[in-house]
Specification:
alpha+beta; Rossmann fold; 2 domains; 16 strands; 24% helix; 19% strand
């Protein structure tokens, strides 16, 4: 008698019942099949614990297989057997009771998009939209190759487009057009993005309250109860302002502090700059911003998002113009974020400034590949001291336990791929195989 393993992740399916006396656990990633079944050689219910070994690992032969003539072997839609007997090794019947499965950790990402007026037009030039807002929409939500539709089965996505509408009261800031976090969210996000792109026919002023918007999605992510790592993907075209001060652009300190607070809450922020913030000269007459603006501000946000030191903005005009009501004794400015004073101590976390739809899509895809988890959780714990007895392979290439570019087991259940192995999994590997000898498990 064979018992199917339960389906544990939404993008894999049980492929075939095993032949009697054999048991295998194999996982194929990114939409390829999951194989998992436990069988008893005698045709009865499973009574022991099975060991599954990768090719080349020897095992003592189990009892002879007794095929069930009334149960034909399942086949693929093309009519071919789903795998051959050479794919797995025979094992002793005493191991067949173990029902250990592996569940891939699913990350959650909120895509936070700047919806300020400069994403649509600049000084009456409405062609800006075709260079910024529309290519971003296509790169994110195109049903054929947009990064969200492609990854929505393995990444939980949320969405928020943010601005401050000058016609609204300060208390209504920020204005967010959002979609709650969920798997298979591509269609909902595409609809919300399109709706967020409808702009007034007459004059309007939409600003960039980045800090308040980051705080809002940080709250959403921290309150989201599903397990897995959490991220913000921030896409902006301008230097930030504040809900309580739309002009000049004095929101840098608050924005950095908000991203640092998100990191302290376990949320990593990736930063993408498009348009003026990535290309304009650091000229206050053009940007309305002093000191560390434009690309320097993107660097500061990126450092905050990765938890590395941020260099303080000491520009005299910034200090004089952006701290009204934010001064302490002796009229000293009170900063909200944490900084270092020495440029040599500041971080250099990556940020992204793609130009054009193709480059934008490639940058977003590269970022989101990084959020693919390299951790697999066993539902059956491994005994202390037995961690290194496991076998882990990527596309049939064995990985070494404890190697910086191999794998480790933490907490008795979490198989973590590290270094180059994790990079391969995120970028090109299609299959991961995880095997432990039956005596390694706590039963």
């Amino acid at each position: 008698m064979c018992t199917r393993l339960r389906r544990v992740v939404p993008f894999v399916l049980p492929l075939r019942l095993c032949g009697s006396g054999r048991r295998a656990l194999r996982f194929a990633l990114w939409g390829l099949p999951l194989l998992g079944a436990a069988c008893s050689a005698s045709g009865s219910s499973p009574s022991g614990v099975s060991t599954v070994r990768p090719p080349g690992v020897t095992a003592e032969p189990g009892p002879p297989a007794v095929p069930d003539p009334l149960t034909p072997a399942p086949t693929t839609p093309e009519g071919d057997p789903s795998f051959s007997d050479e794919d797995i090794e025979g094992v002793q019947d005493r191991c067949n009771e173990l029902d250990a499965q592996f569940e891939k950790i699913v990350p959650s990402v909120v895509v936070l998009v700047d919806r300020s007026k400069s994403m649509f037009e600049s000084n009456g030039d409405k062609t800006v939209r075709a260079a910024l807002w529309d290519p971003l929409a296509d790169a994110l939500t195109n049903a054929t190759d947009g990064v969200i539709p492609q990854l929505q089965g393995e990444v939980r996505f949320g969405f928020a487009a943010y601005n401050r509408d000058a016609a609204q009261a300060t208390a209504a800031c920020p204005s967010l057009a959002s979609v709650p976090i969920s798997l298979d969210n591509g269609a909902a996000i595409s609809t919300a993005y399109a709706a967020a792109g409808v702009v007034p026919a007459d004059y309007y002023k939409w600003d960039t309250p980045t800090a308040e918007s980051v705080r809002a999605v940080t709250t959403e992510l921290t309150q989201f109860g599903e397990p897995g790592p959490k991220y913000v993907l921030l896409v902006t075209d301008g230097n930030p302002d504040r809900c309580d001060l739309a002009d000049p652009q004095c929101g840098q300190d608050d924005a950095i502090a908000a991203v640092q607070a998100a990191y302290a809450a376990g949320i990593t922020t990736f930063v993408v700059g498009i348009g003026e913030v990535a290309t304009a000269a650091n000229d206050p007459g053009v940007t309305g911003c002093w000191g560390r603006c434009g690309a320097l501000h993107l660097q500061d946000l990126a450092n905050a998002g990765r938890g590395v030191p941020v260099l303080r903005n000491t520009d005299p005009d910034f200090l004089n113009n952006c701290f009204d009501g934010r001064r302490g004794p002796n009229n000293v400015q009170v900063f909200t974020a944490s900084y270092v004073e020495d440029p040599a101590l500041a971080g250099a976390a990556p940020y992204f400034v793609p130009d054009g739809r193709t480059a934008l899509r490639e940058a977003l895809a590269g970022i989101l590949r990084q959020v693919r988890s390299c951790t697999f959780t066993l539902t059956q714990a491994v005994r202390p001291g037995q961690e290194s007895t496991g076998n882990v392979a990527l596309d049939a290439v064995p990985l070494s336990y404890g190697d910086p570019d191999g794998w480790i087991l933490t907490g008795g259940k979490d198989v973590q791929l590290r270094g180059a192995a994790c990079e391969r999994l995120q970028n090109q590997a299609e299959n991961v195989q995880i095997y432990f000898p039956c005596e390694a498990y706590i039963r």
